[in-house]
Specification:
The complex is a heterodimer of chains A (79) and B (586). Chain A has 79 residues and is mainly α. Chain A is built from three helices and no strands. In chain A, helix 1 runs antiparallel to helix 2. In chain B, helix 6 runs antiparallel to helix 25 and helix 15 crosses helix 18. Chain B has one domain: Sodium/glucose cotransporter. Chain B is globular. The longest helix of chain B has 39 residues. Chain B has 586 residues and is an all-alpha fold. The chains are: A mainly alpha (79), B mainly alpha (586). Chains A and B meet through helix 1 and helix 2 of A and helix 2, helix 9, helix 10, helix 18 and helix 19 of B.
């Protein structure tokens, strides 16, 4: 859905998921290199790495596919 | 003194790291940014109150569901599943799916074709100003009260879980919602609800996935619950994982309800009333760009609603199965909120039912994921509050201010009024939150009050849409009689607890069971009074009922859409999956 401006709601969704996913993924990698003293249950599954990765990839998909440049292309150059 | 200690306590259930705080702050910045970005797109009444009626089915459908997914919905129903077992899933399945499909395929055409701005607005077209006034005033009052009480409950949970100062939680979250709704109106609320929908799932989905891995799958979970409840000498330990098989008798299940209460009280009245007449959710669908999108939106919402028990009910069941004291190995037993949050409860380290979701979050989620999970809870609260505030603003502006106070108000003055009422509505909600803080028992009263208005309203709207003989006098007297009878039954049980056997048909009936039966009776009273009074009074001529009553409303046919785009096809798919789920968890 467009707002009437050039940014789609899906672009904002991608931005949110991408930034959050990147932060969680990076934290997960850091935890592997420097394991915490108090570990959560099932720590060995490294949920923050793979879940952060999933969110990051989803965010990149939404963010790029619904970016203002791609939206303009789909609308035939109209703003 | 450290300034941070004014806002954050160190004695908490979970401790946030720097990365968690960055995620939370980024979320707040983003929702405010969206509000400012959309400010210029909300200049007319149609833009501000109805989001320009240009939402696609997906956006309207996700916002429709998100407005219902408040944080108390998430934490409260996770707590209820800990308390009542899988019976709580009825509120997501039979208590939602049939009524959402009914809204989509039967009622939405009338709402959409008559171009009403609100449900009370529909009542005005159908029954006149009397029914509109009763409905709009009760809705506006209940919306701000509920919003404030939810805000208070959210602040209490944030205090217990995170150690956040309650004033800080209330003012920051309410101020953010007020700002982005006042700036961008319904469009901004819907935009953020879609964002919040994704955040809620992203933040909550890991708990059931990791929980099932730890419990050994569904079979392992069932076995552990049976073992733990037997150890605690709980009645009917095997009933916590069965949806229907224990509903033959009132005393065979933890809720004290039978199948009739669930099917008729919940499925046929409360759910139908909420999903088809509560303007908080219906407003999102009215913003759809065309009738087909408006019909598809609740079906998309229903498809996702069926999945919500995975992130809400399952964590509650996992809590029953897995929560043990890490030092002693003994089972952790959660208790009612008032007991847990009392000074004595806090001293003993007790946790309330509603804390089961944060407890499971803390169990599996380390830095980063914890921030995402807390953001999901905050997003849930904000989506629910934005839903309340935007619905309140529309009903106040069109059905109270525009209908009773200033009938000649211009479009521009309505938008101006809408922006101010958004702020005022939030301020009243904050006031209610502080009243609730001083008198916690008010929460129980007001939550019940809300159900007083929804069940009879469904009777009135349903008869209005499907029976052209229903008259204006029948409409408003039925609505009034249904509401008063519900209040009367509630007061009767409060004054004389033995009255439960008459109102809910069993002395075993718990709070939820009483709500179901009270709703059923008051809806029936509303229908009977409307029916009798209508037969005794003069009906409106057919010409005045065009576009608001079945049989007199030409429903536009969708243009050459294949079966893959047909709302009826997708409605049937959702219904079949719903039936299969009932059989699997029978």
């Amino acid at each position: 859905m467009k707002s009437g401006g050039s940014l789609s709601i899906w672009f904002f969704t991608g931005l949110c998921l991408g930034v959050t996913g990147a932060l969680i993924f990076a934290t997960g990698i850091y935890e592997i290199m420097s394991p915490p003293a108090n570990k959560v249950v099932l720590y060995d599954l490294h949920a923050n790495v793979w879940w952060g990765g999933v969110l990051l990839l989803s965010g990149l998909f939404f963010g790029i596919y619904f970016s203002p440049a791609n939206e303009r292309k789909r609308l035939g150059g109209k703003p | 003194m450290n300034l941070a200690l004014l806002f954050f306590s160190s004695n908490t259930l979970v401790h946030l790291s720097a990365v968690d705080l960055v995620i939370i702050v980024f979320y707040f910045a983003l929702v405010l940014g969206i509000g400012f970005y959309l400010k210029g797109q909300a200049n007319t009444g149609e833009d501000f109150f109805m989001a320009g009626r240009e939402m696609t089915a997906w956006v309207a459908g996700l916002a429709f569901l998100s407005a219902n997914l408040g944080s108390l919905e998430l934490m409260g129903w996770a707590g209820n599943s800990y308390r009542y077992g899988i019976l709580a899933a009825h509120w997501y399945w039979i208590g939602a799916i049939p009524s959402m499909l009914f809204l989509a395929l039967v009622m939405m055409p009338f709402y959409y074709v008559c171009k009403t701005h609100s449900v009370p607005g529909y009542l005005k077209l159908r029954f006149g100003v009397g029914a509109q006034t009763i409905s709009s005033i009760s809705f506006a009052l209940m919306t701000v009260l509920m919003s404030g009480i939810n805000m208070y409950a959210m602040a209490v949970v944030m205090k217990v879980v995170l150690g956040w100062n309650m004033d800080f939680s209330i003012w920051v979250s309410a101020g953010t919602v007020a700002l982005y709704v006042a700036l961008g109106g319904l469009r901004s609320a819907i935009f953020n609800e879609v964002l919040q929908f994704f955040l809620i799932w992203a933040g909550a989905l890991l708990i059931p996935v990791l929980g099932l891995i730890e419990a050994g799958g569904w079979n392992g979970l069932q076995a552990k619950i049976l073992q733990n409840l037997t150890e605690l000498h709980m009645a009917n330990p095997g009933s916590y994982t069965h949806l229907w098989s224990t509903l033959g008798n009132f005393n065979n299940n933890p809720m004290g309800i039978n199948w009739a209460g669930i099917v008729f009280g919940l499925g046929a009245v409360i759910a139908m009333g909420y999903w088809t007449t509560d303007f908080l959710v219906v407003q999102r669908v009215l913003a759809a760009k065309d009738l087909r999108s408006a019909e598809l939106a609740p079906i998309i919402g229903a498809a996702f609603k069926m999945c919500v028990p995975f992130i809400v009910i399952l964590p509650g069941l996992l809590g029953l199965a897995l929560l043990r004291d890490p030092h002693t190995g003994s089972l952790i037993r959660l208790v009612p909120a008032d007991q847990a949050w009392s000074a004595a409860g806090q001293a003993q380290g007790l946790h309330g039912y509603d804390e089961v979701l944060p407890l499971m979050l803390a169990r599996y989620c380390g830095p980063g994921l914890l921030g995402l999970g807390i953001t999901a809870l905050i997003a849930g609260f904000m989506s629910g509050m934005a839903g309340n505030v935007s619905a309140f603003t529309t009903v106040w502006t069109y059905d109270i201010y525009g209908a009773l106070i200033n009938k000649n108000a211009s479009d521009e003055s309505k938008v101006k009024m809408g922006r101010w009422v958004t702020i005022i509505g939030v301020v009243i909600s904050i006031g209610t939150a502080y009243i609730a803080a001083g008198k916690p028992s008010i929460m129980d009263y007001v939550q019940s009050l809300f159900s007083f208005f929804i069940a009879p309203l469904f009777g009135t709207v349903l008869l209005g849409m499907l029976w052209k003989r229903a008259t204006p006098a029948g409409g408003w007297t039925g609505l009034l009689a249904g509401t008063l009878s519900s209040v009367g039954m509630y007061a009767w049980v409060k004054l004389d607890p033995n009255a439960v056997r008459y109102v809910a048909l069993s002395m075993d009936a718990q709070d939820q069971a009483q709500n179901m039966f009270r709703a059923l009776w008051c809806c029936l009273i509303c229908i009977i009074v409307t029916f009798v009074v209508s037969l005794l009074t003069k009906p409106k001529p057919d010409a005045e009922l065009k576009d608001v009553v079945y049989g007199l409303t030409p429903i536009p046919k969708a243009e050459n859409v294949g079966w893959l785009h047909s709302p009826y096809f997708w409605g049937a798919v959702v219904f079949v999956i719903f039936i299969v789920l009932q059989i699997i968890f029978w």
